[in-house]
């Protein structure tokens, strides 16, 4: 089966690496070999093994009837939305790690996929290598999920845990995080809580069955958290974490992203460094916690390839997933 990758940056090159280095495992799982035959990127990679597969125009992918699946790793909404929707309309399966695209356009793209009897999957858009969405979609499909809360941003968790352990100020640790590649040169999306907000919007949409707009979720970042705040929390037997949460209500959901003081014996309190964790409560199963690498090239790429395998197995069997949530707006209560 043939695949195309859109974007050969951190995630795209990671996906290419997983599909090549673990090709035997991928072939065994799918039931036949999976070959990357097209990679869309405006840059050149002279001498790299991907070079023969490089294309500069999406039309070369869109119009190739042999491509079974498109793997979107570009980020942003445009032109990602146009490329993904076009691929779905051609009957190709699509997998993405793009949380912004999923949070903004997920319901519409799932509906397009359903109408054209194919799949739009996005496990890697939340939690990197942690199988959060597939747990909700497959492992807990029988449950009524009452609430979800978690640490969904590794950059902010890294900063807060180092402030707690080493007594260093926010500004100094942020510079260290940027030097280590944990934070972007412009860290606003992470430290202001916007990244976690988009992720909890996706999770809230999953459990409500309707679109929860991230713009409606009250969001506060960690820029105002001081060493004094952390010390006062410690004295009370608590730790400060940036917590994203969502819970079903009778007429919608409650949701928020903000720094919270949580008890030291709370499951999320022990999550350290760049790790992410999600605590899920089902009405029958009770509490389930998933923890692991929330970002990074290999972890995110691994989650993407997991979706690739699932989508291609579905395709071989003539199956496709139902829509996870609709375009109907779910009210967010303060």
How are the elements arranged and paired?
Blueprint: E1 2-6, H1 10-21, H2 23-30, E2 35-40, E3 54-55, H3 59-62, E4 67-72, H4 80-89, E5 93-96, H5 99-115, E6 120-121, H6 132-139, E7 145-151, H7 154-166, H8 170-180, H9 188-191, H10 194-208, H11 227-235, E8 238-248, E9 253-263, E10 275-282, E11 286-293, H12 297-316, E12 332-333
Parallel strand pairs: 1-2, 1-4, 2-3, 4-5, 5-6, 9-12
Antiparallel strand pairs: 7-8, 7-10, 8-9, 10-11
Helix pairs in contact: 1-12, 4-5, 5-10, 7-8
Structure description:
Helix content is 39%, strand content 22%. By secondary structure, the chain is α/β, with parallel strands linked by helices. Strands 3-2-1-4-5-6 form a six-stranded parallel sheet, sandwiched between helices. Helix 1 (10-21) packs across helix 12. The mean pLDDT is 96.
Describe the biggest sheet?
Answer: 6 strands, parallel
C-alpha-based Rg, rounded: 20 Å
Name the poorly predicted regions: none
Looking at how many chains there are and whether they match, the oligomeric state comes to single chain
Q: What is the strand tally?
A: 12
Q: H/E order of the elements? A: EHHEEHEHEHEHEHHHHHEEEEHE
Indicate the proportion of strand residues: 15-25%
Class derived from helix and strand content: alpha/beta
